[in-house]
Specification:
By secondary structure, this protein is α+β, with helices and mostly antiparallel strands. Helix content is 23%, strand content 41%. The strands form two sheets. Strands 2, 4, 5, 6, 7 and 8 form a six-stranded antiparallel beta sheet that branches. The protein has a four-stranded antiparallel beta sheet with strand order 3-1-9-10. The model has no long low-confidence stretch (mean pLDDT 88).
Length: 150
């Protein structure tokens, strides 16, 4: 399996967001959530992307689908456009999130995150990832730096 791995600063930001998001809903709304790790976007092996050609990479505002909260990662170049998902939390209380504007609740309570999305990603890693029990290993990873077109 292939993985898109955010840069260290972005990964720390996503981890802090994940912690605050889960804490907010568990304390204020009494909703059980579980953190998801690693905070990588996973791709099937047949998804072949030349990351060196990327011209844009943005981590978008979190979304909810099928019990998972995720950050959409938008990748663009001249030849393709692709959206990946970094899943950061899971819940069994799906009905609440389908019937409410949960992001508005969170952003109004957590002003520090209100204007952070979309988040421009300037560097990242990509590599092969193998999961084994409760751990993962990354192989053949390579750092990429995006030179955004002005």
């Amino acid at each position: 399996m292939n993985a898109f791995i955010p840069g260290k600063d972005t990964e720390l930001f996503l981890k802090n967001f994940q912690t605050d998001f889960i804490k907010f809903f568990s304390e204020s709304k009494k909703i059980m959530m579980y953190p998801e790790f690693p905070l990588f976007a996973l791709m099937e092996d047949d998804c072949k992307i030349d990351f060196s050609l990327l011209e844009e990479c943005f981590i978008q505002t979190p979304e909810f689908e099928k019990g998972n909260f995720y950050f959409p990662v938008q990748l663009k170049s001249k030849n393709f456009s692709l959206t990946l998902k970094i899943i950061f939390a899971t819940t069994k209380d799906k009905d609440f999130f389908l019937t409410t504007d949960f992001l508005q609740d969170f952003f109004s309570a957590s002003k520090s995150y209100e204007k952070t999305f979309p988040k421009k990603e300037k560097s990242f890693r990509a590599g092969q990832i193998i999961f084994s029990q409760n751990s993962w290993q990354i192989f053949d990873d390579k750092w990429y730096k995006i030179h955004f077109a002005e």
